[in-house]
Amino acid sequence: MLAAPSFIYAQGIPELDPESTVQVGKIYITGNNKTRTEIILREVDFKEGEKLKLKDFAQKVLLDQQKLTNTRLFVFVEIVPLFMSDTEVDVLIRLQERWYIFPLPVFKLADRNFTEWWVNQNRDFGRVNYGAQLIHTNLTGRNDKLRVRAQFGFAKQYSLSYSIPYINNAQTIGLGFSTNFTTNKTVGVQSRGHRLEFVESDNVIRRSFGISGTITYRPSFYTRHSVSLGYGRSSVDDLILNLNANYHTDSQNIQKYLRLSYVFGVDKRDYIAYPLTGSNFSFQATKFGLGIANNLDLFTARISYAKYFDLKKGFYLATRTEAFKNFSSDIPYLIRSGFGYRPDFIRGYERFVVESNALISHRSALRLKVLDGVQELSRRSLINQFRTLPYAFYIKVFIDTGYTGNPLPNTENNFFNNQFLGSIGLGVDLVTYYDFVFRLEYSVNKQGNTGLFFNFKAAI
């Protein structure tokens, strides 16, 4: 949670004119036992010896606290200006680092969401993935992230990923790498009435392998570009092709392709996990198939914009508009998209998939903060990062709307396509440390269907 900036004045210094000029003296940093100093200073928008107006300096202090929080390296961030005179100010950056290494069990539903598993799949515990994973979110102190995962159960998967935000002295260029291998004995092959239909076998009927590398460029505090090049391979049994000849292009058992993706983003949210103020814009273009492997030839584009408003007295408004388009005419079921597949959804339609080559959506929520604070758990804890529990509760009303285009091949009874969808509802959100968000929502959609749903990620 963010701390409000504290201004400490040396004795005898009167309150200063916001238009007056101050010079930044020394910058002191405490609490960064693991994180390297240059990673912290990368988020600070002033430097030693710089002169600027007091009002501009105060604004930068607040924004820099937000930027340091959004690195997801610290559970506590406070920037304290220490005025040595009416024209000179030192700066103290106080930090408490997160716990960075997590050896965790894997216990995850294989379905799109909890409602899909609970309602459509009749709470089948055979559709659960389990295993183990190791996550380190600050491996060398450079905000570099490592994840190793071994998963069994409904789908076997082995994956490895690593990313480092900066590799150059200017701290503008970063790299990432990921790879995974998955086998399935149960595969969704088509949809009827906007519900997935699966085929099962005692043997593995689908294998997939993926590997990708990403280069990122962050020229300023809020702007980021990334380019990713990946290779994908999917092989399926004839059992799948007999049910859906369009699962791969040209009814092939093996689909191989290169993927090139570009993402541009401008992120000015105050807190990434659960924003209350600021904005977020992103654009993504992806080309599947580069004329080298197989004959997959797809081009997709996505654009989204979110805006967050502080309405005062504890009220906040959040809105997000998003549009997606697949410009190709021959779309294999392997690359299917639509509402119900990440990241696209309309609340109130969690139990459905609305597959299409194009969609647009708008989600909005009016939130009221009813409670927040920090609960002390144990002063005797040997781990400082778990001595306190920050929390915030919000109640909200929300309205979601969306529209999808033509249905994809191998779908039947598509009564939600080519029409506007919508829902309204009430909900409660719980926000706590390590970016954990729990939301419980009751909604009614345009067709009159009602339901109580919960999720573990902010909806907007």
UniProtKB/TrEMBL annotation:
Keyword Ribosomal protein carried by entry: no
Domain POTRA: 22-98
Key words of the record: Membrane
Top-rank lineage group of the source organism: Bacteria
Subcellular location: Membrane
Pfam families per the UniProt record, alphabetical: POTRA
Protein name: POTRA domain-containing protein
